[in-house]
Design a protein that fits this description.
About 5% of the residues are buried. The protein is mainly α. Helix content is about 75%, strand content about 0%. It is elongated, with a radius of gyration of 12 Å. The protein has one domain (about 10-50). Helix 1 (about 10-25) packs antiparallel against helix 2.
């Protein structure tokens, strides 16, 4: 979050990317895999955006 309590654009993009990845993964079940993929994608995107 920014100093004024607002979410940054970066945070919104990362959350949307992670959520979308988990949703797509859930269409081909295995909840553990879906959550793992979401976390990995968010971590990689975070590193690439820096």
């Amino acid at each position: 979050m920014d100093n004024d309590g607002q979410m940054s654009l970066r945070m919104v993009v990362l959350l949307l990317l992670g959520g979308f990845t988990v949703y797509v993964s859930l269409q081909h079940p295995a909840i553990g895999v879906a959550i793992g993929i979401g976390v990995v994608v968010m971590a990689l995107a975070n590193q690439l955006i820096k």
